[in-house]
Amino acid sequence: MNSQVIRNVRPLGGAAVDVVLDGSSIRAMVPAGSASAQLPSLIDGKGQLLLPALVESHVHFDKTLWATPWRPNSAGPTRNHRITNEHDVLKNFDVPVAERAGPLIEHCIALGSLYFRSHVDAQTVWGLRHIEAMIELREKYKHLIDLQFVAFPQGGMLISPGTADLMRAALDMGVEVVGGIDPAAIDRDPIRHLETIFELATRYDRGIDIHLHDPGDLGRWEIERIADFTQSSGLQGRVMISHAYSLGAFPPNDLTALADRLAGLGISIMTCAPPQVTVPPVAMLRGRGVNVCSGSDGIRDAWSPMGNGDMLERAMLMALRFGWSKDEDLAMALDVVSVGSACFGHRELWTGARMPGQSGTAAGGESCGSGGGPQPEAHRYQSRKSRCTRRRLPGPLSQAKSDAYASHGRVCCRLQRDIARGMA
User: Fold this and answer.
1) How far is C-alpha 371 from the geometric centre of its chain's CA atoms?
2) Residues contacting residue 322 through CB under 8 Å, at least 6 positions apart
3) Where are the beta strands (DSSP E) in 332-407?
4) Which of 108, 271, 335, 359 is spaced 20 to 30 Å from 296 by Cα?
């Protein structure tokens, strides 16, 4: 077994330790300086933070405009306007999915995310092209990341004949999760929409991740129906509701019974915590046992020029959205983008780097007393199944931050720099 050491890092801000690795697994965490000097050092963390791997639980890699020239946003004000505009922008876009999504995936890896759930369009305007491109791209990065796909009917399923067939084809191709979108507002037949996606999920033995933007009482009623279908279909622990804006329209105390039901059925809630709409009450839901995770959603796409794929920044935005400022609040925000994101079937992958044998990663902590000395060159290390590769990030660091990662078959140590995108 190849043993190496990540030296002098602070797990979750605690006492400094040396992390002893066997291949790509954590064997032990011992006080800093006590690991055998005979073991090769993977990196000297210089007293910086060791955190769990970050998890991007909701993203649309296939539709990003990343790595292309700036394009002014041309969408109208409503969701249907934005869907139509996206069709117009992407259906004849001359930069292939791989040349946009690939650099973005690499950028996200450099920022510490190793687990991803990407919703990928299966809709008649471009058929299965996005699915095919993303499956090919996943193969390219499989030695670095876990990348899970949702077959997503962005333009509606029932209102767009042929979409359900495309979703079946996507599931036949190996897509792991059945998607859905606004059963009432977009598909205009909520019960039939839910019947269709739950039938697909049970037939193909897949989970479900449904976009639900419908507001207020309507959205709450749909969440209750999703709970009904989850229970009757035996899909407990395999359903996620993404966005769930309606949960933010009610006093938290009015949602306790619903939250308890979601927790009992293992239904997860994903929120990006956007500032302009009502959002689920994350602290209350977690307090009732509901698994809550987060994601970037769209990143520089036809919907919005915003987004950078940084899940630590997403945790900060969540904290700002809810007015969190205490240490326990900030720990909760971190949990939502890392350990708490164990919401799509691999919970054991997100047990934080606290004890020997557990998986973890590290991110973004500045070394205490680092002073103003010379800034080191940037490196990123990754290891999977006893293979370790080293990539050098180009250019000088500005305000370098040292990060170290060790995560389920991977070790990724990085010095984070403020690059715009991409890796060498």
Assistant:
1) 34
2) 273, 282, 283, 329
3) 379-384, 387-392, 401-407
4) 359
Q: Which of 243, 346, 379, 408 is catalytic?
A: 243
* Number of domains into which the chain is organized: 2
156 in the Ramachandran plot: left (φ > 0), alpha (ψ -120 to 50) or beta?
left
**Domain C-terminal end among 349, 371, 406:** 349
Instruction: List per-residue pLDDT tens for the chain, 424 residues long.
Output: 689 999 999 998 899 999 999 987 889 999 999 999 999 999 999 999 988 889 999 999 999 999 999 989 888 888 888 888 888 888 888 899 999 999 999 999 999 999 999 999 999 999 999 999 999 999 999 999 999 999 999 999 999 999 999 999 999 999 999 999 999 999 999 999 999 999 999 999 999 999 999 999 999 999 999 999 999 999 999 999 999 999 999 999 999 999 999 999 999 999 999 999 999 999 999 999 999 999 999 999 988 999 999 999 999 999 999 999 999 999 999 999 998 765 544 443 333 333 333 334 443 343 322 222 222 333 333 333 322 333 333 332 222 223 333 333 334 333 333 222 233 2
The structure's pTM equals 0.83
Q: Tell me which residue range forms the domain holding 331.
A: 54-349
CATH number, position 36 = 2.30.40
Are 113 and 150 within one domain? yes
Same domain for 345 and 263:
yes
Residue 226 and residue 259 share a domain: yes
Q: Using the 8-state DSSP alphabet, how is residue 131 labeled?
A: H
Spatial separation of the C-alpha atoms in residues 48 and 40, rounded to whole Å:
19
